[in-house]
Design a protein that fits this description.
The chain has 82 residues and is of the alpha+beta class. 46% of the residues lie in helices and 28% in strands.
Length: 82
């Protein structure tokens, strides 16, 4: 892994600008045991927790969208709009 969690967070927000558009915040923590990033997306009192596998995170850093993450973000934003 040759990037920081701050770099990954910036890239996720760049690839998924709808997070900023709808006022969501994100937090990342790396889970050594699962070899995956735990991603927490929050808006007001709503939160979703998901994970981003290391290989998906590496693709994200390269600017490639992760389909799974995109679906999760879309569902969360739809939920927040209600």
């Amino acid at each position: 892994m040759n990037y920081t969690k701050e770099t990954l967070a910036e890239k996720i927000l760049e690839i998924h600008p709808e997070l900023n558009q709808y006022g969501c915040s994100i937090e990342l923590d790396f889970d050594q045991e699962k070899n995956a990033w735990m991603l927490y997306i929050k808006k007001d009192d709503k939160e979703i927790r998901t994970h981003l596998e290391e290989r998906d995170a590496a693709e994200c850093i390269k600017g490639n969208k992760c389909i799974y993450l995109g679906v999760q973000i879309g569902q969360f934003i739809d939920y927040c709009k209600k």
